[in-house]
Design brief:
This protein has 2 helices and 10 strands; from the N terminus they run βαββαβββββββ. By secondary structure, it is mostly beta strands.
Length: 142
């Protein structure tokens, strides 16, 4: 199940106090080698292991980058990526195993908004690419 980050949880609560929640013009997907947790721990794929790795844009406009929210079997709501996201080929010397993804408001640095596990861990061998076809990345709110 996906989870909101500490950043998003705080921003939503502050929104009730009248503080505007800033909406970025784009969101970026990051891949992780372990659960980043709500605190956005440093588990994002390291460029030392995969030199060409970079967060990928979900696409614009945001309204068409994700599916409309829909009922989820566990009683919550869900959205999924509407576009294929292609990460560059692993040009490192060894394999990288990714287990989670996260959503950020910047291609570099920035704030993590949410995170979730992949359906199954994926090993990206040298020269392999990671592609998330439409529906592969799912965010759930319960």
């Amino acid at each position: 199940m996906s989870a909101a980050s500490n950043y998003l949880e705080s921003a939503l609560l502050e929104h009730f106090r009248g503080t505007q929640l800033p909406l970025p013009s784009n969101f970026f997907v990051a891949l992780h080698t372990a659960d980043p947790t709500d605190a956005a721990l440093a588990t994002e794929v390291a460029t030392a292991s995969w030199p060409s790795y970079a967060r990928q844009s979900v696409g614009t406009p945001l309204s068409s980058a994700w599916t409309a929210s829909a009922d989820e079997a566990g009683g919550g709501k869900q959205i999924t990526n509407a576009n294929t996201l292609n990460f560059p080929a692993n040009n490192g010397a060894s394999s990288v195993q990714v287990t989670h993804f996260s959503i950020w408001d910047s291609q570099n640095g920035g704030n993590m908004w949410a995170h979730a596990p992949l359906t199954a861990p994926k090993t990206i061998d040298p020269t392999d690419i990671f592609s998330a076809i439409p529906g592969a990345l799912r965010l759930i709110s319960r």
